[in-house]
Design goal:
This protein is of the alpha+beta class. It is built from 4 helices and 7 strands. Helix content is 32%, strand content 43%. It has a 7-stranded antiparallel sheet with strand order 1-7-6-5-4-3-2, covered by helices on one side. A hairpin with a 2-residue loop joins β2 and β3. The chain starts with a strand and ends with a helix.
Length: 167
C-alpha cells in the first residue's frame, strides 16, 4: 500500500521570482553545494526552454548512514536519481518528479505546484512512496516520506536564502 504526504514551502517572493530561480544554473549549483554538507550530490542536467524546465539530480547516500531497516534492503550506497519536470511559467505552474534507486524495491513520485498567495507564493509538493516488500514496506515508506520532508524543508531554506542574496 502506498503512503502519501504533502509539504508546502511559503515564500515572501513572487511565484515568478521563484520560477526564475529554478531556471538559473547558479541557483541549482548553490543548492547542490549546500546539500553536499549532508551527502554527495550533483546536477546531471538542466534544460530550460519556452515549454518549461527539466532537471536531473543525483543524490548519493552512503549505506553506512542509512537507517538499519534500510541497510537490510540496500547492500551498497544508495544512489538516487531525481527527475523534475516543470511546465512553462503560469498561474499556477505545475510540475512532477520521480526519484529512482537502482535495484530499489519501490518508487517515489510526486506532483508540485507553484502559485501566488497574498504574501508571496507557495510551492506545494505532494509525494507518494511505494515499497514492494512484505512486512517492512510500510515502515520504509514512512521513513522515506519523513526524510523527504526534511529534504524539502532544507531545499526551501536554500531557495529563500538564494533569493534574498539576489535582491
Amino acid at each position: 500500500m502506498a503512503r502519501r504526504i504533502d509539504y508546502s514551502a511559503r515564500y515572501k517572493y513572487t511565484a515568478e521570482q521563484v520560477y526564475s530561480a529554478f531556471t538559473n544554473r547558479d541557483y541549482w549549483d548553490a543548492r547542490i553545494e549546500e546539500m553536499r554538507k549532508y551527502s554527495e550530490n550533483h546536477v546531471e542536467s538542466l534544460d530550460v526552454s519556452d515549454s518549461g524546465i527539466e532537471i536531473v539530480l543525483h543524490h548519493i547516500l552512503p549505506r553506512s548512514e542509512l537507517p538499519e531497516i534500510a541497510q537490510t534492503v540496500m547492500k551498497k550506497d544508495m544512489v538516487i536519481t531525481r527527475k523534475e519536470s516543470y511546465s512553462e511559467f503560469g498561474e499556477p505552474t505545475t510540475a512532477k518528479y520521480e526519484a529512482s534507486i537502482p535495484a530499489g524495491p519501490g518508487s517515489l513520485t510526486g506532483t508540485m505546484e507553484l502559485f501566488t498567495t497574498e504574501t508571496g507564493c507557495t510551492f506545494r509538493t505532494s509525494s507518494e512512496a511505494k515499497v514492494y516488500l512484505p512486512f517492512i514496506g510500510g515502515k520504509l515508506e514512512q521513513l522515506m516520506l519523513v526524510n523527504l520532508i526534511d529534504l524539502f524543508r532544507a531545499e526551501a531554506e536554500i531557495t529563500d536564502k538564494w533569493l534574498s542574496e539576489q535582491s
